[in-house]
N(4)-acetylcytidine amidohydrolase
Amino acid sequence: MTKSMNNISFFERFEADILAKRKTITLRDESESHVKVGQILNVYTFESDREFCKIHVRGVTLVAFDALEQRHAEQENMTLAQLKALIQEIYPGISVLFLIEFSLVESR
Ligand SMILES: CC(=O)Nc1cc[nH]c(=O)n1
């Protein structure tokens, strides 16, 4: 099944933070570099492919792994050590990331 360009998945452990607007960025590799500012993305859980919200892409920038700072960690609702460990776990050895800023699309 081809992956829609209007979808994005997150690990289930991030769902509550996204819905509570505590997580407002996500750091991805080049496989998701097609994401564009202004897009509305359908958000699915990675583990079970369950749609749980929609997000509005507000920004897409490049950031070096070594340039990750406390402000990025705060936008992920993590400590900087937790964020760096997560990124290296998901993308071992990565040096440049796509920083996608988003806002939750409020369901009626
Ligand atoms: C499934 C997946 O890649 N999830 C990710 C990856 C990076 N950041 C994030 O918040 N979620």
In short: Residues 9-11, 14, 26-28, 46, 90 surround LG35MI24 (CB under 6 Å). The helical segments are 15-19, 70-75, 80-90.
